[in-house]
Amino acid sequence: MQKKVLNYFKIDNAPGGNQDWLPDWDMNKGGCGAVTACDVCINLAKYFPELYPFDLNNLSREDFIKFTNVMKPFLTPRYHGIDLLEIYINGFSDYLKSVNNTSLKIQGLAGTVNYKLAEKYIISQINSGIPVPFLLLRHENPEFEDFEWHWFNLSGYEILDDDLKVQTVTYGEELWVSLKELWDSGQTRKGGIIKIFNTCDNNKI
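Above: the chain sequence. Below: its structure as tokens.
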């Protein structure tokens, strides 16, 4: 059995930022993409300080809200949500350009690919110390209702004999779920995952 969990940042003793904090209606209802990107940036700011414009040593709810407003123009909530990987990739890439980060690159892996390839991507990225943004659209299993049409991050994994358990982070909470069940949504239209990698120094993260 192999298990790895990221040292995810905390605010108010809870993991990551929380969409419920956001006062603007559009961000409160549809800012999940921006929130996951902000979380990734804060987790990587130790290595790339330009990613987070506030005090990394004194994380606060107030600064996180300000940061989501910085990210908002790049991952703007919209009527149908950020429901395509390409929208997320383009927006997050534009944010990286805006802060002059040329080291990190972003790719997408569509939810239509084989589960085993997704498993490989997730293990690789978490082993590199980077959270995995995940987009789930509809799911036939009501247990995943709270994750539907939503972006959240994966922050850990545990390899079992016949499955990969993954730790989700969203709304300031962590939850372990089966990747196989999460990935097999039973729907024709699927979301997918985002892979972020360092092109300059693979040993830095």
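The chain has a mean pLDDT of 95.
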